[in-house]
User: Fold this.
Amino acid sequence: MTLSNHIPLETVHEVRDTCLCLAVQRAARVLARRFDRAFQPFGLTNGQFSLMMALNGPRSPTVGQLAIFLAMDRTTLTAALKSLERRSLVTSETDEKDRRNRRLQITDAGRALLLAALPVWRSEHAALDAELGGDRPDQLRTGLRALAEGGNAP
Amino acid sequence: MTLSNHIPLETVHEVRDTCLCLAVQRAARVLARRFDRAFQPFGLTNGQFSLMMALNGPRSPTVGQLAIFLAMDRTTLTAALKSLERRSLVTSETDEKDRRNRRLQITDAGRALLLAALPVWRSEHAALDAELGGDRPDQLRTGLRALAEGGNAP
DNA sequence: TCATATTGAGTTGATATCAACTTAATTACA
DNA sequence: TGTAATTAAGTTGATATCAACTCAATATGA
Assistant:
């Protein structure tokens, strides 16, 4: 190691201890694994659960609208939808008012699967809240919302 | 839509507003994009920046140790290392004391690239801290650490 | 109306993610 | 010592992620 381009340990620790990007990626991996495993008996991932839940609103969202809601790149969503459509859990149809739009719907089978997974989400999430304890869950929700809203336009 | 398996809007909103997993995934995507773009001039992603920074400690970590630190699956890390080794930013060698272990090192070229990217990390992160304002950055760090420590064993 | 700009969505290519499984080295204990 | 259990790491296959680019439909303005 040349001294000329050495990086002081202080700096290494600064990044490790303060970088919100690193902290969020770590937490995201831990929670993704945790909920993926919880939903595994239903053949769902945490992302598929969130996606399908978002299709239960009063309006049929477009790909773009759903991508913004999930703070996800549109093209990532296109790929994710492919496997859900293949499994007939979600369908889509061209919006006849504006044929550029694709309106997404959850199917009865999708809704049934989601309903079956819901109690698992509730208990897993209650356990998580309890583990964090006190104000932390709400503080996290507030902070994470601010992070996501700070730039959910891919 | 059959009424028999309808999901009440209340439930949809409950998941949308309280699910920490969804909130973390959203924030993770937003921050990953933000830092990926900031590091783009250096040909680095946020993950590569964090990974390489972690190789600047006093000890040469093994694949497994680094995976635990990043709360990442070991096999994901194997794949990530492949492209960094191909670019000669990172090297590895078998630990002769225990030949199952692979010890990872950052190269001079890797350290130079990291040093060049460091000011960008500092300014981007300072901007982020400022956008969040007040206690939020520290509250987030505390909460995210608790989330990650709650289960960083893949 | 017609040409241009804008918008919504998809494809391609690269990397990221993890489960399930395999291989190799070491440790434990009979 | 020798065999079984454990540990570290890798491979394969599926999905996730996004940048760069393309295509089609709609909107805008001369």
Remarks:
- DSSP finds seven helices and two strands in chain A.
- The first strand of chain A starts at residue 90 and ends at 94.
- The CA atoms of residues 89 and 110 of chain A lie 4 Å apart.
